[in-house]
Amino acid sequence: MRGQVQGVGFRPFVWRLAAEFGISGDVRNDGEGVLIRAFAGDVDGFVGAIKENPPPLAHIDTVERAPLAGTAVQPGFSIVETDRSSARTGATPDAAMCPACHAEILDPEERRHRYAFANCTHCGPRFSILENIPYDRASTTMRAFDMCPSCRAEYEDPADRRFHAQPIACPDCGPRLWLERDGVEIEGDAIAAAAKLLRAGKILGIKGIGGFHLACDAANEDAVRLLRERKRRPKKPFALMAPDMDAIRCHAALSPAEEALLNDPAAPIVLLEKADDIPAGSLAPALAPGLSVLGWMLPYSPLHALLMAAVDGPLVMTSGNRSGEPQAIGNDEAGTKLGPFVDAFLMHDRPIARRLDDSVARIVSGDIRLLRRARGYAPASLDLPPGFKSAPPVAAFGGELKSALCLSRAGTAILSHHLGDLEDALSFGEFQKAAKDYSRLFDHCPQIVAADLHPDYRATRFAEAEAERLGVPLTRVQHHHAHIASAMAENGWPADGAPVLGVALDGLGYGPDGTVWGGEFLAATYSGFTRLACLRPVPLAGGDAANREPWRNLVAQLDTAMGWDVAQKRLGKSALAGLLSEKPVANLRVLMQRRLNSPLTSSTGRLFDAVGAALGLAFDRLTYEGEAAMELEALGAGISPDRAYPFAVVEAGNIRHLDPVPMWDALLTDLADGMPPGQISARFHLGLARATAQLAKKLADEISAGAIALSGGVFQNALLMRQVAEELDGCGLPVLAQREVPANDGGLAFGQAAVAAARALR
Amino acid sequence: LSHGAGGRAMAQLVADLFVAAFDNDMLSAGNDQAAFDVSEGRMVMTTDGYVVSPLFFPGGDIGSLSVHGTINDVAMAGARPLYLSASFIIEEGFALSDLSRIVGSMAAAARDARVKIVTGDTKVVERGKADGVFISTTGVGVVPEGLNLSADAARPGDKVLLSGTIGDHGIAVMSKRENLTFDTEILSDSAALHGLVAAMVAAGGPGLRLMRDPTRGGLAATLNEVAASSGVGFKLEEAAIPVRPQVHAACEFLGLDPLYVANEGKLVAVVAPDHAEAVLTAMRAHPLGLDAAPIGEVVADDNRFVQLTTAFGGGRIVDWLSGDQLPRIC
Ligand SMILES: [Fe+3]
Ligand SMILES: [Mg+2]
Ligand SMILES: [Zn+2]
Ligand SMILES: [Zn+2]
């Protein structure tokens, strides 16, 4: 049996079923998965039962059956200890506390009553404590804790839920929890004391599974504001943890798919639309200013469960880092870096081997959409589509922001956890470490290295150095081609499949023509692409400054669409005209005319910024990436537009431009008529979605595409994603959108790997 | 100025202009070369071509720039510059009045620096074969005994000293060229630094590891080069790097990082820790080092990164760039 079958309680599960079906023989881990030898009994029933209901963390990919020749029948069924070197891996994702462990810590009769580090083969820390392979206790950060006789007995008993549960622990022998202030441990019940501080409006540093959190009472506006001030994070939304599902239900309207995702062993942060009738005062307004969604998660470790039960209300649980830096994982590191932010630390002494942020997901059109792939998902492998099995191993290093790397081999790929923004030196250090870490854990030696076209991405530089070090070729993959390939590969589009029509709505990516791309319609196969159409390019006025200041994109759009004089007349004496009069528009137009640090861009992200700025959203400056676009989405969410803004399609040389000129014309008319911003946003979203879908269908038809693929960071926008999907519904072609691979740059490396592999196969 | 027929007379006219302006015996002697005595110690020699648009900018012009730039390249070895040569490539039709203004500015710059322009050459080329005027200057100087400044000499723990504000020259030239108006006019910092260097050498002696003038590519390019040559990294404190408010504002507007913007009258020095204080004091006592500041230190780093740390922690990697500053955010 192949798949995620090692280190997840598979062998004892098989052992128990063997008894049930009267099977004699044995089970062992080997280099490919789990090998079962069955000699007597109801083998069909036995295999059926294994496939039917495997352990919670197991995924069986393939079952291969072959007759056994010439081996004598032996009585009973045994678990064979494997020679360690032959076991393949055991690097599996961390899993949220299981119901059995939860019940145990609540039961005063149990020896793990109120024990913050209870776990079993069905749950608990894995990748976050893994130092080496194969996965056994000695190669985890639990090696410092000697098992007591009771734990040892459970660990060795195949009938026990904790048989070979490597992080097994109890209050007698396992990690310890304490509360400390100013480096001094405070006596007494740490959970109760921590809860008391939180309820009193204090800010706590909490050591969890993949790193430290900063926590405060989510209902306490003063506490939330104080946390914002200390963390220097004026507006970016904070994630929340609720004691249980009911507590989330008070604040968000939950679909069954959203409930299931909250309860998933991966336990991601799930973005949920705010309920209309949130009880007054139950959530601080400063949690997510201007947004209609909040990120929620459920307690995913006993520590969190105990704390949340004691607090009995939602907590802010934001990653414990200084702005731009990776989250702290070491106790001393946290003391130094987070000490100034917090009033106390809830600490423990189980070291974290690997920094894993909370994953972030959303349900859109009934499907999971991962925005950040980290704890609970990494390092699960992703299957590559048919035809990739014979491709040589590839290491792909992704982009600059939301970086992640990807190792592929023999038809599967490992997409790393989120590694942060590489401009930050510590994050880049993490990235370098992860490159070593993953290649060691998965025993991966690439024959090809893949990187983005952008010459100054640090990941590109790193890839160049790796290719040189290893003496293997480097393949460069255009940013949006990688996005589209990522969507194709995630959806199993075959290696030799027909070309697809790829729609990449994105922030920025370097184009082979030296301009900056980001609203692309590509005819794509894995190995190559042709640019068929794009959003009409406008200057990115002041380069990265335009990425920070939405007003620049508004000026660039209006100037290009109708000329500044006309735009000014149309704006008249409106509030927007007032805002613009404060800005150095004349100088900005000089920049654009002279192309001074103002490359042309077809970015969809910057179009969102421009429309956001027209409504006054983050007009001067973004305080976090995507702020204007997220607020624009929030304005339009829940409003049914009575019309869609028009876009034009115009021939521009050998490609076509999706031209927002008519959209701007209609939008300015609406602004002048005092149309509510929610309606304007809704009309914009619907207009862009329709225009995108119509152009996509037309182009798909022209090139006889086999499918339409959607990717790029803009598709994180649920409103747009849903509308584009609806507009494409019934077009007769499969729509390949991203799910467990992020549509943002977190999914780039996966697409790069697919492209590099396909080029090698050609 | 004209080219071809009549060009000969014109060349004579120009030569006379130079002889009068630069006014020294060696040039006046009218030979095709300058002859001078070789002094004790080691000599340094450097050459640079000057191409700038516009030719006249706030705080200087191509003439003063071509003197300062080459003097500074000599001076960064810790040397005392002695003589310059100058070669002009002039586009046909270039106004004589502009040329004499440039020559006058060169002469003044050389005089102020006490450096003689002792030999030179002029060519007038067809219209379109040049852009106004290009100047190439070569400089020689002498290095004091025992001083050996070199880009591979930085060691972890060494201090980094910057002589003043950064970004002035690049922004001044760009604003003028592109006709951008800012609230306050920004002047080029173009200046000859050998006087400042002499003071630093006197104060720092063997504690001085290296000096560089962060011209094209700015402080970022310069320190990345040093990091690569020395096999070290740099940690700079963002708040310690002096930038004029108007330059900061202009950079914000242009979307440029002042660390990558050119300077023509600033130097950055790497100094052994126990000599840093003395060198800094000497710098601040010199008119061109009034704003001198310790901006960070050399660190051991296999990546050879130049990092910028902010007051709130966090270290931004200030990489070398393959070309212009390109937008990165996606
Ligand atoms: Fe992207
Ligand atoms: Mg030179
Ligand atoms: Zn469990
Ligand atoms: Zn125990």
Automatic annotation (TrEMBL), chain A:
It catalyses: an acyl phosphate + H2O = a carboxylate + phosphate + H(+); C-terminal L-cysteinyl-[HypE protein] + carbamoyl phosphate + ATP + H2O = C-terminal S-carboxamide-L-cysteinyl-[HypE protein] + AMP + phosphate + diphosphate + H(+). One of its GO terms (molecular function) is carboxyl- or carbamoyltransferase activity. One of its GO terms (biological process) is protein maturation. The active site is at R11, N29. Residues 188-376 form the YrdC-like domain. InterPro entries: Acylphosphatase-like_dom, Acylphosphatase-like_dom_sf, ATPase_NBD, Carbamoyltrans_HypF-like, Carbamoyltransferase_HypF, DHBP_synth_RibB-like_a/b_dom, HypF_C, HypF_C_2. Belongs to the carbamoyltransferase HypF family. The keyword Transferase applies. Its EC number is 6.2.-.-. Residues 1-81 form the Acylphosphatase-like domain. This is Carbamoyltransferase HypF. It is an enzyme of class 6 (ligase). Pathway: Protein modification; [NiFe] hydrogenase maturation.
